[in-house]
Amino acid sequence: MNQAMKNKQYLLFLLVIVISITKSTAQVPVMKEPRHKPVLVNNYVRLLDVHINPGDTTLYHIHATPSVIVFISKSTIGAQKMGEAPSAANAVLPAQTSFANYGANPITHRVFNAGENIFHVMDIELVRKEPSADSCAALTNVATTINEKLVRVYNFDVSHQQPFIAAKNNCAHLLVCISGEINTPAKKLQAGDYIFYDPGKSISITNNQEQGATCVMLELK
After folding, report:
1. Could you tell me which of 81, 109, 78, 110 has the C-alpha nearest to residue 92?
2. Which domain holds residue 161?
3. Distance, C-alpha 109 to centroid of its chain
């Protein structure tokens, strides 16, 4: 092999290394990260449906909008903030929820799936700047798990032939089915499905299955 060919191969090798390093450290807005799929965008929320395969790691991505995180799967995951060591992997459970005020405290990180099943989570960005002046009172027939400026979050079960009903009010709602199967007048929902209710819409949920169902509902102020 002559020297020119060796030089060409060496330059190609360097190019591959540079591309690999660039891909591993690239930063993108969270909605542009390939595993974060925008499935619902309106005046209240930007719902990113996230699936990460076992052993996979997302790109570094930027969170800069207040968010509610709703875990759908039982998984083992970890994260790594830009410029820091990875966190230890931890277990998360279906229906587990958290609020992150990324608007005040943006972060850039990547997430990895250290488990053996697909990690499924919803990152629900709250896009309004202020709540409505005539925002609604909290529901009293379910437990409130999160109460923030723009959102309340409820976690509840729907038993066989024991419907859940919420009267219409001035808030919008996002209902997520975590497990089991439920019916609404508009459609049937299974684990990982969702439905959005505009303000002024009543909510009626039934469960025709013997197995109970678990739901998380965001009340959008």
Report:
1. 78
2. 143-220
3. 15
pLDDT (average), residues 21-29: 65
Report how many domains make up the chain: 2
- What stretches of 72-179 adopt beta strand conformation (E)? 75-81, 90-92, 97-100, 107-113, 119-126, 143-147, 151-158, 164-166, 172-179
**Residue that terminates a domain, selected from 92, 126, 160:** 126
Query: 90 or 21: whose pLDDT is higher?
Result: 90
Please tell me what DSSP assigns to residue 57. B
**Predicted TM-score (pTM) of this structure:** 0.87
- Cα distance between residue 128 and residue 179, in whole Å: 29
Same domain, 167 and 214: yes
Last residue of a domain, one of 97, 126, 155: 126
Domain of residue 114, CATH code: 2.60.120.10
User: Are 219 and 153 spatial neighbours (Cβ–Cβ below 8 Å)?
Assistant: yes
> At residue 21, what are phi and psi to the nearest 5 degrees?
-65, -40
Q: Do 51 and 117 share a domain, yes or no?
A: yes
The structure tokens 């991505």 sit at 61
Mind listing the pLDDT tens digit for each residue in 146-186?
Answer: 999 999 999 999 999 899 999 999 999 999 999 999 999 99
Bridge partners of residue 79, in order along the sequence? 111
